[in-house]
Amino acid sequence: MRSSYTSTNCGRRRTLVASAPHPEAVDGDLAFIVLRIENYQHIVFAYGKDAGVAIHAEFCSRIINQLNDGYPFHGAVYAGGESDVEVEIWGILEDSHLDRYNIAMLNALCEQIAMSSFTWKRHVLHVAISASFVSEQEVGRSARALGHAREALAAAPIIGEPPQSNPVWAQSYRHDMEVAAKLLADLDRGEIVLSWQPICHAEDSEAVLYHEGLARGIDASGQYYCPTEAIQSLERLGLIRIFDQRMVLNVLAELQAYPSVRLGVNISARSAVLDRWWDEIRARLAADPGLASRLIIEITETAPPGAIADVRAFMGEMRRLGCRFALDDFGTGYASIQHLLTLSPDIVKIASIFLRAGDRGQRGAAVLAHLEGLARALAPTVVVEGVETEAQSGLARALGLVWQQGYGLGPPSSARPWAAARRNGRCLRETDGDLPAPFQWEVGFLNA
Ligand code: C2E
Ligand code: MG
Ligand code: MG
User: Fold this and answer.
1) Which atom of ligand 1 is nearest to the CA of 387?
2) How many CB atoms lie within 10 A of CB 27?
3) Alpha-carbon gap, residue 248 to 270, rounded angstroms
4) Which ligand is nearest to the CA of 393?
C-alpha cells in the first residue's frame, strides 16, 4: 500500500511514504523509531542533490520492505524532512514495551539497512544511520513518544567528519566511500577475520597478558591483508561503529568458546558512544560476566575534541559490566593529558614510534623514558608496542617496560594458541600481571 500526504505531529511536517495495513485498535501499542541519515548532506555535496533525494527515497522503501518481510511488527514510514525517516510501529508483541527482544530486532533492522549498499549511477554508497526507539509505554501517548524519540536523536552525536562544499573534499569522500563499501561487502561475506598478537612478558617467554585481535581481510589468493586504510575511511565516513561491533561480537564468540582465554579488541574512539546500537553487546556482557572480565577494549586516543565525554560515559558503562580498557597508541593522539586522566585506563600502550625513536638516539630515548613515566601515572599496566629486535626489547626492559608487543616477540597470526592448548589438554598460561581486577580501578578520578 502506498500513499503520500503530509501531516503534522508535534508541530513538524512529515510525509507518509508507505504503510502496512493498520490494525483496528492500536491504543497503547505504538512505538516509534526515528532514523537519521547522518551522511545525507555529505552525499549531496559529494554526488549531488539528486543522489541525496534518491537515496532517501530508497532508504524509506527499504525500511518498509524490511518491516513487511520477516519482522513480527508492521509500521508506517514517514519522511521527516530531507534526512530523517520516522517509523511508527505496531504489533510489538502483546504490548509496546521495548524489551530486549524487540530492541535486538530493531537494531538488527537498522544494521541490515546500514550494511546494505545503495547504488547511485556507478557509485556504491552506504548510509550512516542514527536511530532512537521510544514506545508509548515508556513515556505515554504517541505525540510524546515521538517527541522523545526525536529529542533523543537530536542529542545523538554525529559520528563521522562534517561535510565540506568543495571539489577536493567531494573527491576524497567518494574515494573513502569506494574503499569503505568494499570493506563492508567483505565483512558481510564473512571475509574479515581476526589475527591474534600476544602481549608478552619480556622476562618470561611463557607469560602472556592477553592476545589482541586485529582485523584482517582475505584477498583472492587467500592471503591476509591489513585493512587499516579502509578502517580509517570508515571512521571518517561515520560507518565504523558497525564494523567495530562485528569485531567485538567475534571476540565475544571466541571468549565464550574458550573460557580461560583473555582477548583484546580494537574499537575506534568514534564507536565509543553509548547508544542503543551497543544494547545487544551490553546485554550479552551483563548476562555472562565471565566474558566481560576477559575482554580488553583498546581505544586509540584519537577521539575528536569534545567527544571525550562520550568516550568516558561509554567506558564507565562497559566497566560497570566488567570490561577493561587499554589506551592504544599512547603519545600519538589529540587528547590532552587532563582528558586522558579522566578516562583512567587500565592499560596504556605506548605507540611503536617512540620505541623506534628511543632505539635511534639519546633524544628519542629521553622521550621514551618520560612517556613511560607518564603512562605509568595514567594506568597500572603499561605495554610498549612495536618491539622488533632484542635491542629494542632490552631498551624497554631497562625502563621497566616488561609487557611488550611486537614482531620480535610474536607477530599477528591466525593461529589461536588457546585452541591448540585445549586440544593438548592444557590451559594457556595467562597472567594478571599488574592488571587491576575488574571493578577495582576507580573511573574518572579527575572530573573534566
Ligand atoms: P594497533 O591496535 O596499535 O595495532 C598494532 C599494529 O601494529 C597492527 O597493525 C600490528 O600488525 C602492527 N604491529 C605489531 N607488531 C609490530 C612491530 O613489531 N612493528 C611494526 N611496525 N608494527 C607492528 P595493523 O594490524 O595493520 O593495525 C593497524 C591499526 O588498525 C591498529 O593499530 C588499530 O588501530 C587498527 N585496527 C585493527 N583492527 C581494528 C578493528 O577491528 N577495529 C578498529 N577500529 N581498528 C582496528
Ligand atoms: Mg590495538
Ligand atoms: Mg597500537
Assistant:
1) 18
2) 9
3) 15
4) 1
Whole-number Å distance between alpha carbons of 81 and 232? 30
Strand partners, 33: 87, 133
In the chain, the amino acid numbered 50 is D
pLDDT at 445 over 60: no
pLDDT above 80 (res 392): yes
Closest atom of ligand 1 to CA, residue 197: 14
pLDDT (0 to 100) of residue 21? 65
Q: What is residue 439's predicted lDDT score, i.e. its pLDDT? A: 40
| 365, 399 Cβ separation under 8 angstroms | no
* Among 314, 307, 306, CA closest to 345: 314
Burial of 166 (0-12, 13-18, 19+ CB in 10 A): exposed
Best substitution site from 192, 210, 228, 247 to test ligand 1's pocket, by max atoms within 8 Å of Cβ? Answer: 228
**DSSP H helices in 72-166:** 100-115, 136-139, 142-155
Question: Quick one: 432 exposed, middle or buried, by C-beta within 10 A (0-12, 13-18, 19+)?
Answer: exposed
Do the beta carbons of residue 45 and residue 57 sit within 8 Å? no
Grid coordinates 592477553 are at which residue?
210
> pTM for the complete prediction?
0.90
